[in-house]
Amino acid sequence: MEYKTMEKAGGGKIYPVLCGNFMQPGAFKGYSAEKMKSHLQTMYDIGIDILVLQWSFENTSEGVTNIYYRSSFESADKSSAYNDSGENLLGNILEAAEAVGVKVFVGLNNNDEWWEKAVSDKAWLTAQAELGIKGARQIYDTYKKQYPNAFYGWYFVFEMYNTAATQEMMENGAYLLNGFCDGLTEIDAEMPMMLSPFLSAYGTEPEVTGRQWANIFAMTHFREGDIFCCQDSVGAGFITVDQLDGYFKAIKEAVDTKKGLRFWANNEDFSQESWGTASLDRFVKQMEIASQHVEAHITFAYSHHQHPDMGKTGHHEAYKYYYETGKLPTYDLASPTVTYEVGEEGVSISGTLPNENKGAMGFRIYKNGELLTLINLTKAYDKPQLSFTFTDDAPAENATYKVCAVDYRYQDGGYSEFTV
Fold it and tell me: What is the 8-class DSSP label of residue 311?
């Protein structure tokens, strides 16, 4: 499977485009195979032919909790909170992916205790790897022969990150990676494993981050074709767009020390400010910077932040325009109709915008020239008009408010203005 920065699979594109997408299971466990086929086809039509199911089961130290495939865990493996209501999900994903032509990387066990323990407890790391490989064998035996093309690889769930790491911490990180690598090699040495650590400018400098990863890579048993798909962490707010190039350059140098290891980017398509979808301008800039160092681009997460199934029709159409043309769409938004009332609770502001303003995804309110709030209304795409009500509970005497619609590039349309 060959994916280059200048994406040939996307119809000869000479600009960076997505080839892959993450999916978290909880939001999709009720999808039938037919509905999942439609979901995947929508993305396949814009060049996204890789799906990463972020995890296929969840566990705690007590045992397995939620399960998203037809498992054969023994009673001793199950916690008191065991729930198999989503066990059809992986089968439905693979059935749909086989029909559409999508390659699936299957994540194994997700344990939220990771965020407390990380690489500090070697016995805990051993238990996670052993349980993960036990689940991997079940999944392989159940689905590989039935869906040989769609079931393509594995995803390493535990999100490592750059920090002021000691040598022991790095050795423990390599130990956990090897627990999965070695077990998955025994199951099927031809199936690649992907991992997606995240970055933080608050942890270490780019050069130190690169040296840390090179040290870890020297201790790991990665196979040729395994994929280091680093989160750019711009969406989460851990680094800025301006810092991205330096970190990816340093990590690329580290990846090059490990023969056969591939370097992809996980460009985040959300914004920490509102935990909503990022502006298309920012997202494309992330891909453009990363494309200088990586082979391919996937995202966390088109299924959640840009797909019509999640009410993100406008965001999807905006990215589709970029995918097809290499250009960012332009919009000409009208000024919203705005009313306001002053009461004991503050200044209550209401606004509407007719739906023919197709590029509108929400509103911005400015107070005395400063941004007061961004109101994201992308899930109201099916209503006859966009509308909002907002209360400023800290009004100032003689305050001037400006209200405008915002497009999918997060640029302002026409303003409506009033002074209280």
Answer: T
**Which residue's structure tokens are 């495939």?**
69
Collapsed DSSP state (helix, strand, coil) of residue 369: coil
Do residues 318 and 341 both lie within one domain?
no
Range of the domain at 407: 337-419
Q: Rounded to whole angstroms, how far apart are CA atoms 320 and 182? A: 40
d(CA 98, CA 37): 9
Residue with tokens 């999508």: 102
Q: Which residues contact 72 (CB under 8 A, 6 or more apart)?
A: 138
Point out which residues pair with 373 in neighbouring strands. Answer: 365
Q: Which tokens go with 348? A: 């209550």
**Residue 65 forms part of a structural domain:** yes
Contact present, 347 and 389 (Cβ < 8 Å) = no
Cα–Cα distance, 378 to 62 (Å, whole number): 40
Query: In the predicted model, is pLDDT for residue 411 greater than 80?
Result: yes
**Is the distance from CB of 184 to CB of 130 less than 8 angstroms?**
no
Please state the domain count of the chain: 2
Tokens of 270: 């959300």
The mean per-residue pLDDT over the stretch 97-117 comes to 97
Q: Are residues 200 and 280 in the same domain?
A: yes
The pLDDT, as a whole number, for residue 397 is: 80
